[in-house]
Amino acid sequence: MASTATDSTPSSTASELLSKASAVISTKPSEAERLYKQVLSDAADESSSTGPNEQSLRDQETALLRLGELYRDQMNAKGLAEIITASRTFMSSTAKAKTAKLIRTLLTYFNSIPNSLDLLLTTLQSNIAFAKEHKRLFLKHSLEARLAALYLENSRFKDALGILEGLGKELRRLDDKLVLAECFLLESRTYWGFGNLAKSKASLTSARTAGNAIYCPPYLQAQLDMQSGVLHAEDKDWGTAYSYFFEAFENLGNLGTSVGGEEKEALSALNQKISQPFSHTNLLHHTLHPVK
After folding, report:
1. Are the beta carbons of 182 and 216 closer than 8 angstroms?
2. What's the CA gap between 216 and 211, in Å, rounded?
3. CB neighbours (10 Å) of residue 168?
4. Rounded Cα gap, residues 242 and 38, in angstroms
5. C-alpha 195 chain-centroid distance
6. Number of neighbouring beta carbons within 10 Å of residue 20
7. H-type helices in the chain, by residue range?
8. The pLDDT value given to residue 289
9. Does 43 score more than 90 pLDDT?
10. Contact criterion met (CB below 8 Å) for 115 and 156
């Protein structure tokens, strides 16, 4: 009974509960799940009675992430969707940037779960509606960009463009250069998917302009270079395309980032193209001295 009383004591023993959950997660995942949920429940009760504190918020964040990892490893898409929805209590008490980062992280866990696309789309749309209702603009824009990217990955170009057009207008009005650069990059990829190279190039130019106005994170810079490589390959400018691809892959490698399917397909396509007009020696020459 004493042990039960200790386990049910709220936030003061959250660290202990988290440690216990970590100790049993590989052998008793259902017990770990119960402990993580208890941390969240205790923190929510404390927040409603006395207001949130920094330690309680850290405990909630840790429990949410570990529970998300558990559901990811169990291929439990429904549980993952539920924990993202349950995190809204945490969202209302913490910084907007941290909220957006947490939700984005949890959403990436769907990538490891087969046949979870429909549930992921529903989860995104539900949380976009929540963010809009509660005027969490940073979160709303981040989730809309993720939804557009998801549509793009699944060749739903019209749906992606519909989101990006509205998102772009809001971001220009707010002058959020970083997310605007990401939005224009997605727009460039979407127009490329449509086969409209002129608009794809124009959107990429806008993305680079927005990125140049701020500090452009290395990962975003690599994605911009990747798209530049794709468009130069479309123009059969093999040397310049190869240079952009090489720069992008080098930057991604330095970041320790694995290359996704889209990038691998682009590089594979480029390799097929460049093997036709160039020998390896000529390819190196044209990489160092692009045709103008």
Report:
1. no
2. 5
3. 18
4. 53
5. 25
6. 16
7. 2-8, 14-24, 29-50, 54-73, 77-86, 88-91, 96-108, 117-133, 137-153, 157-174, 177-194, 197-212, 218-234, 238-254, 261-274, 280-288
8. 41
9. no
10. no
Mean pLDDT of 64-91: 90
Residues with Cβ within 8 Å of 32's Cβ and at least 6 positions away in sequence, in order, are 21, 22, 24, 25, 66, 70
**Whole-angstrom distance, CA of residue 61 vs CA of residue 46:** 15
pLDDT at 162 over 70: yes
What are the residues whose beta carbons fall under 8 Å from the beta carbon of 221, sequence distance 6 or more? Answer: 211, 251
Backbone φ and ψ for 94, nearest 5 degrees, come out as -125, 175
Average pLDDT estimate for 120-144: 90
**Confidence category of residue 78, pLDDT binned at 50, 70, 90:** very high
Mean pLDDT of 121-131: 92
Burial class (CB in 10 A: 0-12, 13-18, 19+), 101: middle
Hey, what are 179's tokens? 């997310």
Q: Is 100 exposed, middle or buried (0-12, 13-18, 19+ CB in 10 A)?
A: buried
Angle at 115 between CA 255 and CA 40, to 5 degrees: 70
The residue type found at 92 is S
Tell whether pTM > 0.85. Answer: no
Structure-token pair, residue 238: 């093999």
Question: Nearest-CA neighbor of 99 among 64, 68, 66?
Answer: 64
- pLDDT for 6: 42
Backbone angles phi, psi at 121, to 5 degrees: -60, -45
Residue type, 224: L
- For residue 136, give every residue at least 6 positions away whose Cβ sits within 8 Å of its Cβ, in sequence order, or none: 91, 96, 99, 130
